[in-house]
Amino acid sequence: MTRHLAIAIAVALGGTLAAPAFAQQQAAQQAAAQQTPTEVVQQIAHQLDSAVAGHKAELEKNREKLIGVINGVFRPHFDVDYAAILVLGQHAREASPEQRVEFAKAFYNSITRRYAQGLLNYTSGVVKVLPTADSDLNTKRSVVRTQVATGDGKTVSVDFVFRKTASGEWKAYDVVIEGISYITNYRNQVDAEIRKVGLAQLIKNLQTQGDQALKSMEQDGKAHGG
User: Structure pTM?
Assistant: First the structure.
């Protein structure tokens, strides 16, 4: 297991815009409305124990099912639209509503597929949720601090930043790995690319990257007997 597992868990929280079935999504929303941010992260860790640990051989062969795990476990707890606006930064004001939707879908599909493989390194108990400090508590914002164990005996600090949505649910919108913000990191990359090729072309490039990553995953799955 490597540091890529921590990155995979963090990035996978972004999920994709392919939401689960309506009934499942509705049930997840109702449950989430009753959960604190710490309980949300604990639930994610518990679900990963059930969905990944002990099923690696199956997921290795079936990459579509691996993406399904990300959709089912992470997606209901992530504020995709809000995070996408933060990543776009100043360019969000210049983008049309349609472009913001297209960007969010292309961006998260791309990074999820690139890092999904890292979840195959997940083993039960590697995510430790730390006690919440008073300074982390707020009626609208909250930070859940965790440690992800790596295979070399070390740990990686992964903090999940939550906001309370208009519906009253706590949803994550940023992940901080070893002090580096997921949002800030990608905002800088996106800003540079938009200045270079423009938003429309960036969206196309991200769509291509996502498609290529998915094809690569499917080929790897077939190579392992899928």
Answer: 0.78
